[in-house]
């Protein structure tokens, strides 16, 4: 069976205030053309269809258009909700849509009930694991402590239990939306840390033929059978070096796997430039970036006058301007934001405790902080679900 693995469409998202709906529509057209031209048997979409729980009308209309075009091709599509989606909203009408060959999997309770598709060699069971917010699904999966590894492990136990009841030789594909150990993150993914831990080991998914992951925006291979497709478009300058693509997967009779990357259209290249303003304006080597979307980091010791306007004369698509004067690390003018770069909420809070009283939190106090952050995240997630 040949299927196309994609994820993280984020319909409705902008890129530094630049509307991306046109580029997203171009991607949908490319997806449909690939399905037709490469004779794809099924499409899997591993979450974050929308960029937010209540998407703009134009994004909903684009999603509707995508579903109609895929249904018109007669190619089954299996998709799950991600952490950006409202599972309830995305799943509305799932029973009716299912009849058209569009299979929406948004309910945690249904993780062990696959979409079963057949090819000349037998059945392929597609199991949809929507994004599982640990604090909201711990009762469903009866885990003692809410955490990503615990709930995903319990969900996969249901998958393996169902698979064991099926005919010998039944092949299996799991769609999941998670941060798996070994994956490389970018700046455009929403943090899903719980208890100080975001990542789950790839071994959680043992026992199936292919795991189609969503959440991380870079296309990457965790193992031969565990892969991220990445987002079809760049949504942050940290993705400037990404090659945006989808996985075209051939799953053989005996579970043998062949995966090919299919490139996605690029609306405009990205470039991250760094240097003094005068150097960026004069350097002939930068001519190749004059039509790109630009993030410029200025290293001038003193902030120059009208930097954005001057940059735009050479780089008309400059979208982001960062000031990072080159100073010694112990210079008191080093910004607070730079000192905090790359540190988690937990680390920042523990540093604050150490600053205030001269000693960091002990193990019990650190656990209290973790529980507080987890409660806030769970409350935020519950509010999004309720919206």
Automatic annotation (TrEMBL):
It comes from the Bacteria. Residues 267-355 form the Nuclease SbcCD subunit D C-terminal domain. Gene3D superfamilies: 3.60.21.10. One of its GO terms (molecular function) is 3'-5' exonuclease activity. Keywords: DNA recombination, DNA replication, Endonuclease, Exonuclease, Hydrolase, Nuclease. Residues 1-218 form the Calcineurin-like phosphoesterase domain. InterPro entries: Calcineurin-like_PHP, DNA_Repair-Maintenance_Comp, Metallo-depent_PP-like, Mre11_N, SbcD, SbcD_C. Coiled coil: none annotated. One of its GO terms (biological process) is DNA recombination. CDD domains: MPP_Mre11_N. Belongs to the SbcD family. SbcCD cleaves DNA hairpin structures. These structures can inhibit DNA replication and are intermediates in certain DNA recombination reactions. The complex acts as a 3'->5' double strand exonuclease that can open hairpins. It also has a 5' single-strand endonuclease activity. Heterodimer of SbcC and SbcD. This is Nuclease SbcCD subunit D.
């Amino acid at each position: 069976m040949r299927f196309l693995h994609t994820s993280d469409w984020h319909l409705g998202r902008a890129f530094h205030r630049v509307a991306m709906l046109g580029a997203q529509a171009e991607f949908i057209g490319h997806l449909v053309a690939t399905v037709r031209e490469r004779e794809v048997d099924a499409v899997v979409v591993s979450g974050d269809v929308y960029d937010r729980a209540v998407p703009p009308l134009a994004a909903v209309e684009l999603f509707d258009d995508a579903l109609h075009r895929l249904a018109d091709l007669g190619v089954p599509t299996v998709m799950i909700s991600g952490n950006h989606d409202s599972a309830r909203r995305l799943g509305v009408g799932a029973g009716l849509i299912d009849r058209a060959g569009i299979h929406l999997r948004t309910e945690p309770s249904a993780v062990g009930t696959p979409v079963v598709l057949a090819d000349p060699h037998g059945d392929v069971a597609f199991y949809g694991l929507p994004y599982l917010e640990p604090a909201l699904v711990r009762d469903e999966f009866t885990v003692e402590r809410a955490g990503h590894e615990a709930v995903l492990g319990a969900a996969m136990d249901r998958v393996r239990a169902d698979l064991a009841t099926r005919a010998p030789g039944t092949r299996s594909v799991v769609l999941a939306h998670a941060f798996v150990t070994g994956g490389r993150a970018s700046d455009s993914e929403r943090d899903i840390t719980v208890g100080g831990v975001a990542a789950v080991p790839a071994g959680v998914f043992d026992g199936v033929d292919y795991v189609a992951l969503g959440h991380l925006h870079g296309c990457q291979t965790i193992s031969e059978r565990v892969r991220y497709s990445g987002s079809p478009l760049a949504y942050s300058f940290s993705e400037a070096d990404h090659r945006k693509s989808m996985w075209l997967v051939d799953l053989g009779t005996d579970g043998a796997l062949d995966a090919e990357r299919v490139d996605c259209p690029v609306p405009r290249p990205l470039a991250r430039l760094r240097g003094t303003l005068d150097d960026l304006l004069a350097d002939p080597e930068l001519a190749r970036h004059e039509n790109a979307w630009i993030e410029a980091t200025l290293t001038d010791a003193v902030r120059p006058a009208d930097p954005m306007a001057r940059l735009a004369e050479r780089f008309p698509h400059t979208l982001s301007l960062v000031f990072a004067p080159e100073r010694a690390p112990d210079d008191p003018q080093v910004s607070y934001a730079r000192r905090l770069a790359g540190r988690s909420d937990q680390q920042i809070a523990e540093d604050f405790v150490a600053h205030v009283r001269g000693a960091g939190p002990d193990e019990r106090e650190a656990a209290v902080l973790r529980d507080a952050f987890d409660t806030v995240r769970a409350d935020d997630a519950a509010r999004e679900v309720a919206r």
